[in-house]
Design a protein that fits this description.
The longest helix is centred in the middle third of the chain and has 20 residues. Helix content is 48%, strand content 7%. The radius of gyration is 21 Å and the shape is globular. It is an alpha/beta fold. It starts with 24 loop residues before the first helix and ends in a 10-residue tail after the last helix. The chain has two domains: 223 residues, HUPs (Rossmann fold, 3-Layer(aba) Sandwich), CATH 3.40.50.620; 69 residues. Helix 2 packs across helix 3, helix 6 crosses helix 7 and helix 12 packs across helix 15.
Length: 337
């Protein structure tokens, strides 16, 4: 059976990568007899450095574009409602950049109707249910705030393009497109040193937890892995292009923030930190009857105590050092897509 979750014509080599994906995707798909038509590529755009590099390359490097996005290109991202202010500023630059380079760009905000009511923003969910994200519980924020809105939008877009326009669910438009034009190529900005993240994404995409239409109609592409770029190479290349280098993209109140990230947040956005701590207070109060099972953002240690401990670890750290740390890494945890 041909797997729907792999993308052809890319070298996939990484440290600790799974044996069944070692070698080149070209060889693998040649053996399978799979045809890559590449009619539609979707760049999953987070507003950070890796996906921005991909967008710049698609716009400015015809050979790169022909290899990794040979057909129609959509650039789609979803606002979590907890983005860094600099990320939102960069999105506005990217909106104009895409107009200049005739690239279809969509930044999904809650007012557009693709977010759910419960997950309009990260803090909407926290206020709605007196809850808070925690390192102790399963991660649902990325799926609810980024992945699901994107797939809802893509189904809507495909209907408007004439693919199963009467279909009420997402499966119809995707299956109609795949039947006529081939699988949708989903381009992700995972770097060469994120082999485990790539592996998790591919395994999840092939698993029963993924809707059948996605397994059948989506293939994943990792161009940064193909060219062997890590985060440092991405930053250097963007600077060499003389184009804006955004900060890494992650939520301000991500519950996987490191000690240094907490210090940075409190120093630069103290009101945001305090609101976060208040949401933890509300969660712990609501579930007080759970006893030892009632956990906060970092488990049993309270968020304000976690911050105090972090500050004591780095009492003399400068703003410049904190900013350099922030620019050195992206997502706070290695989420799969």
């Amino acid at each position: 059976m041909t797997p729907a979750w792999l993308s052809p014509r890319e070298s996939i080599r990484w440290i600790n990568g799974p044996p069944y994906l070692r070698g080149t995707m070209e060889e693998l798909f040649a053996n399978m007899g799979f045809e890559d038509r590449g009619a539609l590529t979707v760049l999953s755009y987070g507003g950070g450095q890796d996906s921005t590099w991909l967008l710049y390359k698609f716009a400015l490097d015809a050979e790169f574009r022909a290899l990794h996005a040979p057909g129609r290109l959509l650039v789609v991202g979803s606002d979590t409602g907890d983005e860094h202010p600099e990320t939102i500023e960069h999105i506005e630059f990217i909106r104009e950049f895409c107009k200049v380079h005739d690239i279809e760009f969509y930044w999904l905000t809650p007012d557009m109707g693709f977010h759910s009511e419960a997950w309009a923003t990260l803090m909407t969910q926290y206020y709605r249910n007196n809850t808070v994200g925690s390192v102790m519980f399963s991660r649902t924020c990325t799926d609810n705030l980024k992945i699901q809105p994107m797939y809802r939008f893509l189904a809507h877009w495909l209907r408007n393009e004439g693919y199963a326009p009467e279909s009420k669910d997402a499966a119809g438009p995707f299956r109609a497109f795949a039947k006529q034009r081939g699988r949708v190529r989903m381009c992700l900005g995972f770097t060469v040193d994120e082999g485990k993240r790539v592996d998790k994404t591919l395994k999840r995409a092939a698993s029963a937890e993924t809707p059948a239409y996605r397994r059948d109609c989506i293939e994943f592409s990792f161009p940064l892995v193909a060219v062997g770029f890590d985060r440092d190479a991405v930053q250097k290349d963007i600077r060499a292009m003389n184009l804006p280098l955004p900060p890494p993209s992650n939520c301000l109140r991500c519950h996987f923030r490191s000690d240094l990230d907490l210090v940075w947040l409190h120093r630069n956005h103290p009101a945001k930190f305090e609101e976060w701590a208040e949401r933890e207070d509300a969660k712990l109060l609501r579930f007080a009857d759970k006893g030892e099972k009632n956990l906060g953002v970092y488990g049993k240690i309270r968020l304000r105590d976690k911050l105090a401990a972090a500050i004591s670890l780095y009492p003399a750290i400068t703003d410049a050092e904190l900013e350099a740390h922030r620019m050195s890494h992206g997502h706070c945890v290695a989420n799969a897509f």
